Amino acid sequence: MTEPTHIVCPHCDAVNRMPQSRLQDAPTCGKCTQPLFTGRPLDVDSARFERHIGRNDIPVLVDFWAEWCGPCKMMAPAYAQAAGQLEPAVRLLKVDTERAQDLSARFAIRSIPTLALFKGGREIARQSGAMDAVRLSAWVRQHIG
């Protein structure tokens, strides 16, 4: 028997346990009954960031961005498109570096957009600069195997 996979709900942040094999079956949250995967990136603050990084068993891709950043705005549609391609294998988060300056400092974000890929609560890869959806998905898949 395989270990259950923990998935944090993008709506209520409850941690759900399920078999890995059920991730493709459009699972819903046991607490709020909303879909666990929406095909869209999730905007998070510092507290929600900690919950999703620390409790999701699937890899988590984070886009560190800011409203005033032209390349960030240019990459936003590609990031949203990548979410539809990568879920349910990867959760995609967006962190506004202006609102979550503690995270910007903690992860030494020096340029934006910066993508950071986390697995098991640890950062495993980082890429600065805007990418299109195809390159972004390929970069993620390269690092998660």
TrEMBL record:
Residues 36-145 form the Thioredoxin domain. GO terms for molecular function: metal ion binding; protein-disulfide reductase activity. GO terms for biological process: cell redox homeostasis. Pfam families: Thioredoxin, Zn_ribbon_Thio2. GO terms for cellular component: cytosol. It comes from Massilia aurea. Belongs to the thioredoxin family. SUPFAM superfamilies: Thioredoxin-like. This is Thioredoxin. Keywords: Disulfide bond, Electron transport, Metal-binding, Oxidoreductase, Redox-active center, Transport. PANTHER family: GEO12009P1. Coiled coil: none annotated. PROSITE patterns: THIOREDOXIN_1, THIOREDOXIN_2. InterPro entries: Thio2_N, Thioredoxin, Thioredoxin-like_sf, Thioredoxin_CS, Thioredoxin_domain.
